[in-house]
Every structure is written in structure tokens, then in C-alpha cells.
Amino acid sequence: MVRADWSGAFCPVRRGLDVVGDPWSLLIMRDALHGRRRFEDFRSSLGIADSVLSRRLTALVDAGLLTRNDYRAARRTHAEYRPTQAGTDLLPVLHALATWAEVHTTLPDGGGHMAVIHTACGAETRSADTCTACREPLRSEDVAWDKPWHDRRDALVGPVDAS
């Protein structure tokens, strides 16, 4: 199904959804903020078809949420994708979605509460953009997600240096 182009809409929600309204786009950004860089890493993590992943990565680069850097390896050019400042600015959206889902969706058997940890102070936070313990703004490079179903804590990454 082809949807309407909302890039010229007055409503900022529509314009935002025009960029990240596809579920794959948010999942790719989640993975990019967790430090995944390469096509194969995204594909393996998400179980996404190559054609869909390729289109979404291109769209996220075109929208300015990711940068693409080509590098040469094993007689072939590969690409790495890194979040920009606009991409890391999606972190509160991901936190809000995760917090909402923790309350309003059913946790599958074997799961557990995903805690958002503000590594700068060490406390769990329930806010999308400000630490509820120390009141400091949450920056991607100062946040980790405790994922009990993986029995690990995943640190997030900051934006690429624009210089």
C-alpha cells in the first residue's frame, strides 16, 4: 500500500511520520543508537529483507538521520551508517514509545522490564528526555538499556562528529 506524502503538511506529527512513521525506520534507528553500523548487522538483528533494509537506510540517510560512510574491504566497497544529531534526537521518542509499551502492552512470557539507565548518575529513569533521579537531560551517549530477556545492558551512542 502506498501512502500519502506528508512532507509538506502543516502538522508536525504528519511531517515526522513522513520520516519515521514506518516501523522498520524506528527499529533501524534503535539499532543505530545501539552502535550497529553495517548492513549485515542491521539485517541480522532485525530479520529484515535486504530490499526493505536498503530502501529504509537510503531514506534515513536522505532525511538526515543517518550518515553513510563507504569503506573498502575484501575487494568490495561496504557502507557504515551512523546516527546524526537529528538521529540521536529521536531518543526521547524511542524512550516514550518503550515506556508507553511497558504500561499498555502485554509482556510476552520470559520477558522482563526494560530499564532505561542514565549512566551519568547510575539511576533508572522513567522520563523520555530528563533523568527522573538527577533531573539532567538524557543524551544518547549517557544512556543504557537494561534488557533482561538478553541478560545484558546495552549502551547507546551519540551522534557522529559533524566536523
From TrEMBL:
<dbReference type="InterPro" id="IPR036388">
    <property type="entry name" value="WH-like_DNA-bd_sf"/>
</dbReference>
<feature type="domain" description="HTH hxlR-type">
    <location>
        <begin position="11"/>
        <end position="109"/>
    </location>
</feature>
<keyword id="KW-0805">Transcription regulation</keyword>
<dbReference type="InterPro" id="IPR002577">
    <property type="entry name" value="HTH_HxlR"/>
</dbReference>
<keyword id="KW-0238">DNA-binding</keyword>
<protein>
    <submittedName>
        <fullName>Helix-turn-helix transcriptional regulator</fullName>
    </submittedName>
</protein>
<dbReference type="Pfam" id="PF01638">
    <property type="entry name" value="HxlR"/>
</dbReference>
<keyword id="KW-0804">Transcription</keyword>
<dbReference type="InterPro" id="IPR036390">
    <property type="entry name" value="WH_DNA-bd_sf"/>
</dbReference>
<dbReference type="GO" id="GO:0003677">
    <property type="term" value="F:DNA binding"/>
</dbReference>
